[in-house]
Amino acid sequence: MSYDRELVAAKKAASLAARLCQKIQRALLQSDVQSKSDRSPVTVADYGSQAVVSFILEKELVDVPFSLVAEEDSGDLREESGKEILNRITALVNETLAGADTYASSTLSEESVLTAIDKGKSEGGPIGRHWVLDPIDGTKGFLRGDQYAIALALLDNGKVVLGVLACPNLPLTSIAHKDTAPTEVGCLFYAQAGSGTYMEPLDGSSPVKVTVSDIDNTEEASFFESYEAAHSMQDLTSSIAQKLGVKAPPVRIDSQAKYGALSRGDGAIYMRFPHKGYREKIWDHAAGCIVVTEAGGIATDAGGNLLDFSKGRFLDLDTGIIVTNQKLMPALLKAVRESLEEKSSSSSL
Ligand SMILES: Nc1ncnc2c1ncn2[C@@H]1O[C@H](COP(=O)(O)O)[C@@H](OP(=O)(O)O)[C@H]1O
Ligand SMILES: [Mg+2]
Ligand SMILES: [Mg+2]
Ligand SMILES: [Mg+2]
Question: What domain of life (predicted)?
Answer without folding.
Answer: Eukaryota
